[in-house]
Amino acid sequence: MAKRDSKKCDLVLSGCKYSTSIFKRAFWYEGEIFEHGTPRNDMLINNYNVNYRSRILNGLKIAKKSKVILYAPTFRKGNNLEIYKLEFSKILSQIKNKYGGEWVFLVKLHPHLSSKSKDLVYGKDVIDVTAYDDIQELLSISDVLITDYSSLMFDFALTKRPCFLYVPDLDEYMANDRNLYFDIQDLPFNHATDMDQLLLLIQQFNNKKYEQKLKEFSSHIGTYENGKAAEKLVKHIHEVCFKEKERKLYEAI
């Protein structure tokens, strides 16, 4: 199926050199790879005005002064819902002690778990946003992200805001679900295998060291993300589809 799908593609977008190498070997794709970043991430790099953030917060019925922590885990093959359970109140308390201010906890589970979210998301200042249709908007308003094996970590890294990986099933996941493209130890994000460790990582988080790790990782993977991916893609599509010769052909028809 992947081989058939690759033949349907005329262009593949890449956010970094590392992704380009993966696409070539994983998708059986020999066509053009557009190495200028991914349009969905432009909003995470560019500084949108206050009204943009306010619109999203207002739609979620969150006070403008509130800070946001987002939990967005990926999907597992098994039906063990315990993996997704966090002690939201303890994390909120730790976050408030670390950074101050009022915080709201957003939880976006995988769509496969939408029918189970009511059993997993609960507590004061905790909001289930599993049905929210644009994860990039949620990332853009979040001050802290907690995820696990999801590639969302790489998107969120563009904001340079704190990201923590909660992976209580690390060994099991790698044995039964899938391998990882990176050794988790080589990632710039701190990871925890239990709740006590996660709380400690939040308490001890050092933003200066984190930003240095992000810088080194970005250099290692050869990022193309600069906030202009959509602009460059539109220009490329226009050149391919609507250049002078093609335009005359379509007008004649």
What does this 3D model show about the protein?
The chain has 253 residues and is α/β, with parallel strands linked by helices. The chain has 2 domains: 2-37 and 225-244, no CATH class; 49-210, Rossmann fold. It is built from 13 helices and 8 strands. The strands form 2 sheets. It has a 6-stranded parallel beta sheet, sandwiched between helices. Strands 1-2 form a two-stranded parallel ribbon. Helix 2 (17-26) links the parallel strand 1 (11-13) and strand 2 (32-34). Helix 5 packs parallel to helix 10 (195-204). The two termini are 36 Å apart. Pfam families: Glyphos_transf. This is CDP-glycerol glycerophosphotransferase. One of its GO terms (molecular function) is CDP-glycerol glycerophosphotransferase activity. It comes from Sutcliffiella tianshenii.
Observed structural traits:
single chain; 253 residues; alpha/beta; Rossmann fold; 2 domains; two-stranded parallel ribbon
Q: What's the alpha carbon Rg, rounded to whole Å?
A: 20 Å
CATH superfamily of the largest domain: CDP-glycerol glycerophosphotransferase, C-terminal domain
Shape: globular
Number of helices: 13
Biggest sheet architecture: 6 strands, parallel
Topology order in helix (H) and strand (E) letters: HEHEHHEHEHEHEHEHEHHHH
- Which class of the largest domain in CATH terms? Alpha Beta
Structural class: alpha/beta
Question: How much helical structure, as a percent, in the residues?
Answer: 40-55%
Terminal Cα span: 36 Å
Question: What would the average pLDDT be, to the nearest integer?
Answer: 89
Integer count of domains:
2
Enumerate the spans where pLDDT stays under 50 for 5 or more consecutive residues.
none
CATH topology of the largest domain: Rossmann fold
Beta-strand residue percentage: 5-15%
Examine the secondary-structure arrangement and name the CATH architecture of the largest domain.
3-Layer(aba) Sandwich
Oligomerization category of the chains in this entry: single chain
| Beta strand count | 8
The strand order across the widest sheet is 5-4-3-6-7-8
InterPro entries: Glycerophosphate_synth, TagF_C, Teichoic_Acid_Biosynth
Pfam families: Glyphos_transf
GO molecular function: CDP-glycerol glycerophosphotransferase activity
Protein name: CDP-glycerol glycerophosphotransferase
